[in-house]
Amino acid sequence: MLRLAPTLLIALLVLPVGAGLLMVLLPAFGYLPALGGNTVSMAPWQSLFAQPGLGRSIAVSFASGLLSTLMALVVVVLFLAASRGTWLDRGIRRLVSPLLAIPHAAVAFGLAFLIAPSGLLARFLSPGLTGWERPPDWLIVNDAIGLTLMAGLVLKEVPFLLLMCLAALPQLQPDQRVMLSRSLGYAPSIAWLKSVFPALYPLIRLPVYAVIAYATSVVDMAMILGPTLPPTLSVSILSWFNDPDLNRRFMASAGAVLQLGVTLAALLTWWLGEQCVKRVSQGWLVNGARSTGSVAIAMGGRLLLATTTLLAISAIGGLVIFSVAGFWRFPDALPGTFTLDHWQRLLPSLATPLLNTLSVGLAATLIAAALVVAVLENEVRQRLPASRSQWLLYLPLIIPQAAFLFGLVVAAESINVRPQRTLVVAAHLLFVAPYLYLSLSEAYRRLDPRWLQVAHSLGASPWRAFWQVRLPLLLAPLLTACAVSLAVSIGQYLPTLLLGGGRVPTITTEAVAMASGGNRRLIAVLALLQALLPFIGFSLALLIPRLAWAKRRQMRGVA
Fold it and tell me: Beta strand pairing status for 37-38 and 31-32?
């Protein structure tokens, strides 16, 4: 049965994506008999290109995806080059998983509350440094060119790329590479950039592509931080798809195909950039410069990632303050009064969204955990190298959500499957499984095989050794991977909205829906609750192994 696990996992990820792409492609060319489209037509595309502001929507989507990914990658690479083995490096490594777990919408709301004209930063600087007695009339959040959206994307992309780098680095023996380069007189940061990064980048190329795909097609963050007139392409597609006029479904499908084209164009542009950097950097790699720029790299790498981390933490801190703020006039740094009225007002109505969030997240995480553990166990038992088809696990992350989720809705409707909780769980599984695999695979492969050999020598069967030796040793990384996956599920907006048809409300859908209301206190309560759930998951992932091995101090699992 284990041998079927890799095929089953890939099929569960690839088939829905393929079906979704097919069922969005047909209506894009006018063919959807259920809505009266019985012939192939270019009318949907003509309607799409007639939409005002379409060019700006495409440009913002394209630019935000590329620029935010570039900035995030630069921050991560410079930090790894500058801070190897320092206290800052150790501290950030401990924070990377919790920061990754904070849902996108929560980060977006926190950043908006932090940098808005009447936000926390303006309040702390006023009136002493700015002279402002009232908020300036500046369009910071929802700016026309998407700068705030890019900033929010960077805050979320940095932890993900850093986690991917940390997972890939053990394969490269970076300490030995840097030590050899330093013996030749290279400064530590230059040694890392010249000897480690060229070998590291091919290992993180697919995660980088996944980041580009997400950033070019994000919906929830774009609704909160992005431009509004016109919005980004993905937000426009969602509005067309939800339009009461069902004929707009054809134009929405054409927009979804266009979104796929925008993402593919961004990926192609990035690939061309890779080739240019590869050629240009050849001379720098072998020019023998041993310390030029090392001080700037060391200072910049530490400062950039520390600033990014501080902004993310400050954003969450801002949510805490707004959620308990009473009367708060500008430019007071802190509220004049504190109250729990906002919590008391919202919590009674959040029982159903909270239950849906936990039930869907736990179901998707448990199914993904069973599949991923089966795949990895088969790989270890058969002593197989990492499969070349592993890139298929990234397919739901590389293909824009808007490009296939709309097609999945059409496919479900065509076979009379109505929006329901089961569909939402299946949709979340598409995104939860890849993250769980990425989080767990390295720890699973690095477990010392001698533990299992000892168990077999004592007469234990393979399955008994699995349950009584391997899983206990891997308890901590397995629970951490499940916590990451649960956080990913909690943050899913578009799959929940489309496959649930609005009938499976979650904390995330409620928070984004309230974004248009403008009540910062109530938005802060929802966003903070959304961030609190992953925090509880990570706390349990740290606490349970300690309780399980409280009387076994010599027990050492794989961290």
Answer: antiparallel
Per-residue DSSP letter, 38: E
Give 553-559's long-range contacts (Cβ < 8 A, gap of 24+): 555/472, 556/473, 557/472, 557/473, 557/474, 557/475, 557/476, 557/477, 558/443, 558/446, 558/447, 558/473, 558/474, 558/476, 558/477, 559/443, 559/476, 559/477
Residue with tokens 């496959």: 499
- Is residue 439 a contact partner of residue 485, using CB atoms and an 8 Å limit? yes
- Band (pLDDT 50/70/90 cuts) for residue 558 is very low
Helices marked H in 34-129 — which ranges? 43-49, 54-82, 87-101, 104-115, 120-125
Joined together, the tokens standing for residue 481 give 């991977």
Average pLDDT (538-553) is 80
Q: Find the DSSP H helices in 187-336.
A: 188-195, 197-217, 220-225, 233-241, 248-285, 294-323
HSE (side-chain half, CA atoms, 13 Å) at 111: 30
CB 476 within 8 A of CB 540: no
State the sign of the Cα–Cα–Cα–Cα dihedral 397, 401, 403, 409. positive
* 3-state helix/strand/coil string of 127-168: CCCCCCCCCCCCCCCCCCCCHHHHHHHHHHHHHHHHHHHHHH
d(CA 334, CA 317): 12
With residues binned 3-state (H G I as helix, E B as strand, rest as coil), the percentages for the chain, rounded to 5, are: 75, 0, 25
Residues 6+ apart with CB under 8 A from 401: 217, 219, 234, 494, 495
Report the distance separating Cα 334 and Cα 332, nearest Å: 6
| Per-residue exposure over 76-88, b if at least 16 CB sit within 10 Å of its own CB, e if not | bbbbbbbbbeeeb
**Residue 37 forms beta bridges with which residues?**
32
Separation of CA 451 from chain center: 35
> Which of 77, 57, 65, 21 is CA-nearest to residue 267?
65
Whole-angstrom Cα distance, residue 86 to residue 306? 13
Q: What's the mean pLDDT when you consider all of the chain?
A: 86
Q: Please provide residue 556's backbone torsions phi and psi, each rounded to the nearest 5 degrees.
A: -130, 110
Those residues whose C-beta lies under 8 Å from the C-beta of residue 71, and which sit 6 or more positions away, are 150, 154
pTM recorded for the entire structure? 0.88
Do you find a cis peptide bond into 230, omega within 30 degrees of 0?
yes
Count of beta carbons in the 10 Å neighbourhood of residue 539 = 12
Question: Residue 483: which H helix or E strand, with range?
Answer: helix 475-490
Give the containing element (helix H, strand E) for 31.
Answer: strand 31-32
Q: What is the pLDDT of residues 125-157, one digit of tens each?
A: 888 777 788 888 888 888 888 999 999 999 989
Q: What is the pLDDT of residues 13-59, one digit of tens each?
A: 888 998 888 888 888 888 877 777 778 888 889 999 999 999 999 99
Q: How far apart are CA 220 and CA 218, in angstroms?
A: 6
| Chain position carrying tokens 């609005």 | 502
Cα torsion through 114, 119, 124, 128, rounded to 10: 140
